[in-house]
Amino acid sequence: MTIGDAPVRVALLGCGVVGSQVARILVEQADDLRERVGRPLELVGIGVRRDIPRPGIDPALLTTDVASLVRREDVDIVVEMVGGIEPTLTYLLDAIAAGKSVVTANKALLAQHGDAVFDAARDSDVDVYYEAAVAGAIPIIRPLRESLVGDAITSVLGIVNGTTNYILDQMHTRKSTFADALAEAQSLGYAEADPTADVEGYDAAAKAAILASLAFHTRVHLDDVDREGITEIDVQDIAAAERLGCVVKLLARCTVSADGTVAVGVHPTMVPLEHPLAGIRGAYNAVFVESVNAGRLMFMGPGAGGSPTASAVLGDIVTAARNRVRGVAGPGESAYSTPGITPPGAVRSRYYLSVTVRDEPGVLARVAEAMARQQVSIAAVRQEQGDEGGRAHLGITTHEATHDAVRAVVTHLMSTDDVHGGVRVLRVEGA
Amino acid sequence: MTIGDAPVRVALLGCGVVGSQVARILVEQADDLRERVGRPLELVGIGVRRDIPRPGIDPALLTTDVASLVRREDVDIVVEMVGGIEPTLTYLLDAIAAGKSVVTANKALLAQHGDAVFDAARDSDVDVYYEAAVAGAIPIIRPLRESLVGDAITSVLGIVNGTTNYILDQMHTRKSTFADALAEAQSLGYAEADPTADVEGYDAAAKAAILASLAFHTRVHLDDVDREGITEIDVQDIAAAERLGCVVKLLARCTVSADGTVAVGVHPTMVPLEHPLAGIRGAYNAVFVESVNAGRLMFMGPGAGGSPTASAVLGDIVTAARNRVRGVAGPGESAYSTPGITPPGAVRSRYYLSVTVRDEPGVLARVAEAMARQQVSIAAVRQEQGDEGGRAHLGITTHEATHDAVRAVVTHLMSTDDVHGGVRVLRVEGA
Predict the structure, then answer these.
(1) Which of A19, A66, A321, B278 has its CB 3.0 to 4.6 Å from that of A37, i.e. a possible disulfide?
(2) Per the domain annotation, does A333 fall within a domain?
(3) How far is the alpha carbon of A329 from chain B, nearest alpha carbon, in Å?
(4) Lowest model confidence (mean pLDDT) among A58-72, B272-286, B327-341
(5) C-alpha to C-alpha distances, B72 to A343, B3, B75, B85, nearest whole angstrom
(6) Residue where one domain finishes, among candidates B264, B293, B326
(7) Are residues B197 and B289 in the same domain?
(8) A184-208 pLDDT, tens per residue?
């Protein structure tokens, strides 16, 4: 490769936790980056909402006129680190229309408006790279889009939200309540003041949509993802999981159903300790991929944080810049497949049901019969603890069943006198 | 992407365990591959040594005239699955000179002649992809070459040979001897009749050279790799590792030394159970990467086998074909850096020393003094077992020390009357 002099020029949108790290690395590692790209990478502008002094940042680079920055003639690559949907989407589409390549970590935007962005990029023959949008520093987009592109992926399971993994890990290891573990995550900066996007699974759902789109060469929208957060996970669930040799994880699950449709969901799930995902601790992320030929692969690493996310962003910037130097765009994702989405009620999983019943002869038989009527096959039953008031707790694990069938069982059980209170239902990973 | 009709034409060299799987997938998944490439992938010829019938393979494709096949005008991509150095290297250079892109899994060839191959590919503006050369199905080449290209990698540790990992795993879990575990690996097809390349670490050393070249943007040759096999690992080593809370792994280790030079070695190493690599079982492979910004990443999966290796090869074929469709070559590796190789004796590591000494007052003091004289700092000493003949066994773990210093300690100890027999030395991973 010839080292040229004309720089590849980068505009950065946003100068927060990640953006400031990207700016730092562009300066600190300028010599290495120049060698790797073949030309200098030059940061020519930083779009910010408020024009305030930022330590370590040349004030001359800052501008609040982001709309103009993304179209400036002296910009080759726009790196979007502001998040949100609008005006960000407009910025990105304007940049693409003006012939800029785009690097983004904006999972919510891609999960909702990926179609518009990718189609525009194809029309303008520019790159859209987004390695940092899923699982932070872990290379997972490129492996799915390129390394495994000659294989047939059958499932992708991911721990893709570090905040919830930290909280659930604390609930297991320190027997914290959800509220206490959340408060601790917030005090450590792992959770935001408004933790909704994390604990309700919205963040993981956006990432699941992106993973499923790549794995199955289709386009999965955020709305296609069946989503359940972890706010109702309590100490009883944690204890029940441990009795079963499992840990509770918030699992993004992208699979192919028997009819060829694609099931994409995010649910708190009991994961057996022998599964590689069970060992992912703290705020770490991991993605577990199964394919016809490669078999089982796992990728793990830091799922968030300024520097790790910046590492993924820089990898994308260098790749986009190398393409610029060669005067081409890289191949985009293929999205030729239209398998359709499995309705959430038809998705099959193993389940765990926790039921409080009258401690009388015949009750278990009636519970078992109610399950059999819905084709829900019992794998194991254990009476988990006695109770003072003539009640017993049953912990039932099932073989694979549809969510609709399990819901019908629950509805029936709660209509009988045999059951006290609600029925707690959790998914269980594994065949 | 427009789906064109003109096929991208593939010539396959070799039709063995991996080659036959590649041929199978090219046929079975032709529809999906066409969509992903944008044009059909057509297998136009298979070069073989002996012209014998091969089940499932169209005989019209087979040719023993490999030298002509690699230069045929109707070939776009040459997929090399024959292994060995010559005539394979000539085939590859001829193919590249004739403008073909190349996909190979030949780690030995790349570790010894990578310079010639990569330079030729650059001159001819064609692709050389080799994802299957290291860690089988695990995407690691592309993550190092592209995803982490904006980061500064500080170390790569790998379990990159499934045969030796299987043998060591059996020695731990079933207390097998090395000979028994090797025999079992051979009977299961995990080890070849002549296991030298695996058990003596040559295979892992070639992979280490490739990983270090990519991680540090330089060119590391097989001869630069300090290599030690596992044939001398015995049940005492395994037991000692377990007493220290470790497992023995054959570890490929690529690190940056304090003076900026690069240390690349393959050694049986005690890995603490809490390290993610300690959990890699059986014939699985894993690569553990640390970088300044991303932090700690790990990639794991099947390290060998026809289908897993074919998955990686197909990913490379699709990527090379996509580039052909676009009329470009992808960016190659950057190898601009010339840090130099740390002399093996100067590489720093923690060590474990097992010494049989006279069970007398003053002996431990003299051993400790000998170590101090060489600046080898003791982390822990335990008297591991008593002995009938007035002897004691010492298990000593050290802080980081150079290999030269440890060797000097051993030489000195063996020259004294205090020590009986040899001194067993193993590396210990961890800071």
Answers:
(1) A321
(2) no
(3) 9
(4) B327-341
(5) 51, 25, 6, 22
(6) B326
(7) yes
(8) 999 998 899 999 999 999 999 999 9
